[in-house]
Every structure is written in C-alpha cells, then in structure tokens.
Amino acid sequence: MMIEQNRILKDLCSYRTGGAAEFYAAVQTDDELAEALAFAAEKGLEITILGGGYNVLISDKGVSGIVINTAGLNCHTTVNGTEVYAGAGIMIDDLAEMTAQAGLCGMEDMSGIPGTVGGAVRMNAGAFATEIKDIAVCVDMMDWDGRRYRVQNADAGFGYRRADGLKGVVTGAMFRLKQGEPEAIKVRRAEILAKRDEKQPLDFPSCGSVFKRPEGNYAGTLIEKCGLKGFRIGGAVVSEKHANFILNVDNAASDDIYSLILHVQDTVEKETGIRLEREVRFIGF
Ligand SMILES: Cc1cc2nc3c(=O)[nH]c(=O)nc-3n(C[C@H](O)[C@H](O)[C@H](O)COP(=O)(O)OP(=O)(O)OC[C@H]3O[C@@H](n4cnc5c(N)ncnc54)[C@H](O)[C@@H]3O)c2cc1C
C-alpha cells in the first residue's frame, strides 16, 4: 500500500470539488487498513474515512491529516442462504442487483443509491421503505488502534442517517434478506430505478439530498416554499427539479456549495422557524 502526499481528492467525490489530502491511502485489505491506521498513530495524524464520496463536501483548503479511502476495501461478497456478507468497498447498488438476481428480496428499495457498503452502513442509508438498519445483522469494524471487532445491529446506534455506535472503520457487513420471486424482485428494482430517474436531477454533480427530512415535513418543500429553487452562488445552484439537491452546474468551488447550504439553512429558518439539519458530511472545514 502506498501512502501519497498532497493527493487531490476532486475525482474521489461526487461533487467534483475540494482540495488535497495531506496524506492519502487507498486500502484494499484489513491488513492495509491496519497499516494506514498505524501510520496515522505514529505521526499523530487526524483520520478521515472516505468511501465512494457520494455524501461529502470536501473543503477547497484540503484535508489535514490522513484520508483513508475504503472504496476498494474487501471487495467481495458471500451468499449463504438468505444471509449475504459484503465487504466495505462493494457498491450498494451492485449488491442490490446481485441479490435481486439471486432471488433475494429486501434490497430493492436501495437500488440506485450511490456509494459503498461502508458509507451506507455508517450513514444508515435508505430510500423508500428500507434503511440499512432494517436488513443489517452485524457490522465488522476496525477501531482506530487497528483492532477488529463486530457490532450487532442493536448496538450500532442506527438512527435517521446515522450509526453513532460504530466507532472506527466499517470493514464489512452481514445482511439478512428473504427468499423471493426473482421476476417480482427485478420488476420492483426497475420501478425504483425509474422513480429515482424521474425525481432526481442526475445530470450534474451533487451529493443527493443535502438536508435531512425535518419532523413532519420535507426539506425540499420548505426550500421551494422559500422561493429558493434556482438560487445560485458561483457555480452552485438549488435544483429546479428537486429543491433538496444543490448541484455543481459550472465548475463550482466547495466554497460556493458551502455558502449556498448556509444561505438555504438561514433563509428557511427565517421564513419557517425550522433549522434544516445537514445530511451531507463536511470534510476539512
Ligand atoms: C445522486 C445521489 C443520490 C443519493 N440518494 C440517496 C438515497 O436515496 N438515500 C441515501 O441514504 N443516500 C443517498 N445519497 C447519499 C449517498 O449515496 C449515501 O449517503 C451513501 O451511503 C454514501 O456512501 P459513500 O460510500 O459514498 O460514503 P462517503 O460519502 O464516502 O462517506 C459518507 C460518510 O460515511 C463515512 N464512511 C464512508 N465509508 C466508511 C467506512 N468504511 N467506515 C466508516 N465510515 C465510513 C465517511 O467518513 C462519511 O462520514 C445520494 C447521493 C447522490 C449523489
């Protein structure tokens, strides 16, 4: 495993913005991960974990310390009856497709969510009626000192787009699905993919939904009500198609996106009294 210095991160996140990592390691095995963590400990570096980069905004100033990329970590899956084990680097949509083909149901709603198993577990990602917490049996982790441990679902601290009980790096997860009728599963998956295509602005770089759904409301509805659709700062704009998406339409800087996020939060709070909570994770700010 190579540890790089001043590694540009733009190409590793869906917004295609941001600066460089002071140190950077792309790890493929638990041993490489342990090695990268030991390097960080030895040098006293702050650690940032990056998966597929689909839910992050990376500062234009870059990231101090070490960025450990787990998008290639343990990229294997095993199926044992209705139990499916997937390494952290497996893409969630690939897993949804693979399980659909195997006649296992439970992941159809997650079709089309971009990102890795590691990121999805850490975020408790979900769509339509299913979140990771509904199908995860246990999560394999490595703590910051390089020790492996396993967390059962009930101890993962799963909540809306969070899993606060997971301390360290997700290295893999076990999911329990159900035996289903392959054709029906494929139809449901195709429906979900079509719905996402219809509702989401997928032509420009984004992080998906910027804000979490506030209790009893929708972030997109509130943003739209405040007249913010189409509002622009630099190369960043609030999507006309889905107001909870902020798009990089013209070589935006992370600063443009950051400023627009704050503007939306402040405006919505002023007009409605509701402070929207971010779903996107800031890195290096
Ligand atoms: C077009 C679009 C549509 C989207 N739709 C949805 C949706 O429907 N539902 C949904 O929930 N999300 C959605 N998202 C957001 C994103 O897909 C999810 O949050 C996804 O789970 C992020 O995975 P990732 O691997 O890219 O994680 P990253 O973005 O790389 O990281 C996200 C967080 O997880 C942490 N992390 C990543 N990997 C690990 C690991 N191995 N161990 C520990 N921590 C880790 C990171 O430190 C960071 O805090 C969408 C994003 C886009 C761009």
UniProtKB/TrEMBL annotation:
Keywords: Cell cycle, Cell division, Cell shape, Cell wall biogenesis/degradation, Cytoplasm, FAD, Flavoprotein, NADP, Oxidoreductase, Peptidoglycan synthesis. Gene3D superfamilies: 3.30.465.10, UDP-N-acetylenolpyruvoylglucosamine reductase, C-terminal domain (3.90.78.10), Uridine Diphospho-n-acetylenolpyruvylglucosamine Reductase, domain 2 (3.30.43.10). It catalyses: UDP-N-acetyl-alpha-D-muramate + NADP(+) = UDP-N-acetyl-3-O-(1-carboxyvinyl)-alpha-D-glucosamine + NADPH + H(+). It is found in: Cytoplasm. Its cofactor is FAD. Pathway: Cell wall biogenesis; peptidoglycan biosynthesis. It is an enzyme of class 1 (oxidoreductase). The keyword NADP applies. GO terms for cellular component: cytosol. Coiled coil: none annotated. This is UDP-N-acetylenolpyruvoylglucosamine reductase. Residues 16-180 form the FAD-binding PCMH-type domain.
